[in-house]
Amino acid sequence: MTKQMTVTQEATEILDRLGVAKAAWTGGTLASFSPVTGEQIATLPVASVADVGAAVERAQAAFKEWRLVPAPRRGELIRLLGEELRAAKADLGRLVSIEAGKIISEGLGEVQEMIDICDFAVGLSRQLYGLTIATERPGHRMMETWHPLGVVGVISAFNFPVAVWSWNTALAIVCGNPVIWKPSEKTPLTALASQAIFERAMKRFGDVPAGLSQVLIGAGDVGNALVENPKVALVSATGSTRMGRIVGPKVAARFGRTILELGGNNAGIVTPSADLDMALRAIAFGAMGTAGQRCTTMRRLFVHASVYDQLVPRLKKAYESVSIGNPLTSNALVGPLVDKLAFDAMQTALEASKSMGGTVTGGARASVEGDAAYYVRPAIVELPRHDGPALEETFAPILYVVKYTDFDEVLELHNAVGAGLSSSIFTTDLREMETFLSARGSDCGIANVNIGTSGAEIGGAFGGEKETGGGRESGSDAWRAYMRRQTNTVNYSNALPLAQGVVFDIE
Ligand code: NAD
């Protein structure tokens, strides 16, 4: 960014370069702000409930065509999306930083994640496989086949404004499904940009049915119209547990399918045998990275009493010295909070910590870009016990630190929260490591050893248990959620034996 250019001007230039029509982000009623400076950067027209219904009809028509396209050919479209994303990486990554406030390397990293899932999905398009299963009947064959599911509705959160869409879309498209995306109302511009990039890929591909990929701009009411529409076969919703509590039962009531990727309250355990230098760096990134606004951010830390005084003072020093600044114009490691609401929630949690006897280091507002932007010094809170605000996710950079002495007891505390997304242990003791990864260890969807709680790769299935919603996205066999399974039994004999020895002979 040149010195004269405002964030708004830069966003405008990027949107122009990426081919987003001006009418899509000007003259509407949804104001979009950049957390970097707090300035308003766009006013977007929003979808109505009727628009949602029309989009679902278009997607349903697209489904009827797309499900007939062979999966490897569908993969070709995602290969082209990957190519377009590679070409647009610098612009889209920067727009992520402008709209979500991430530091540049994280904005670019998010786009890299989109590219990675495209590569993964292209390979997947040639290995959507089912099982053949032994049958008890002679001259019969039994097998499972996987068919496209239907319209996929994607509802996404502000903090991963584009990666979550790509995780869902790359898989949904190779699995034969159209996608309708309702991005966060806080990050609509990156959504429009991603759609414009995908449209270029679709144009190069050629014969894509209209309505295969659509974006609906708006807030929760627009998401709700998708949730309530019985023609949306799968709702993949990423966001707070509060949102999931509303969305989950509504989709279940119409027997729809959900992937829920909700809040996390992720913890690390530092044991007596831990490599403390490594732990320090991993905790610093896990807890302060993205200004504490990752679903996988480390929010709780249990430190064994024997290493507490070696680790915690160093950690506090790192908190006091970490660079905070404008992610577009500095190399700072910590950018802004998304808005005032996030700042207020952080202050409330810190007050609650103090009133239960916690010692707070950091947490004050940092003056970086004036009154409209909310930069804050990450906070480390030493708590006398694992309780109060530590039991809930506050979407801000607060790390609660609790001393422990007994390994079995700390496992209990680790699991004693509602969320179940990510977890990690720092140890060089084989028994502790394996116990943490065993049935009586971490109850989370992600359990790491000697790395932090955040920064997952796309090859593994991503998601969490309990109040995190139970969904899985991204790698491994997450694709199965985007397809319907059919069990087929074929009789190639001259007889009609019935299973379980049932006899039903008619004259
Ligand atoms: P949020 O719940 O406020 O909003 C998320 C999305 O849900 C937005 O698009 C919003 O418009 C939509 N929404 C809200 N109410 C709705 C309703 N009644 N019906 C349909 N849609 C509705 O979340 P946020 O503040 O944008 O994101 C932060 C939260 O997301 C944190 O809790 C974080 O842990 C979580 N998150 C989880 C994951 C994960 O993979 N588990 C990933 C990223 C973020």
UniProtKB/TrEMBL annotation:
Subunit description: Homotetramer.
Keyword Oxidoreductase: yes
SUPFAM superfamilies per record: ALDH-like (SSF53720)
Taxonomy, superkingdom: Bacteria
Residue ranges of every copy of the Aldehyde dehydrogenase domain listed in the record: 28-487
Name of a matching Pfam family: Aldedh
EC numbers: 1.2.1.3
Molecular function in Gene Ontology: aldehyde dehydrogenase (NAD+) activity
Similarity field: Belongs to the aldehyde dehydrogenase family.
UniProt-annotated catalytic positions: 261
Protein name per UniProt: aldehyde dehydrogenase (NAD(+))
Alphabetized InterPro entries for the sequence: Ald_DH/histidinol_DH, Ald_DH_C, Ald_DH_CS_GLU, Ald_DH_N, Aldehyde_DH_dom, ALDH7A1-like
UniProt keyword list: NAD, Oxidoreductase
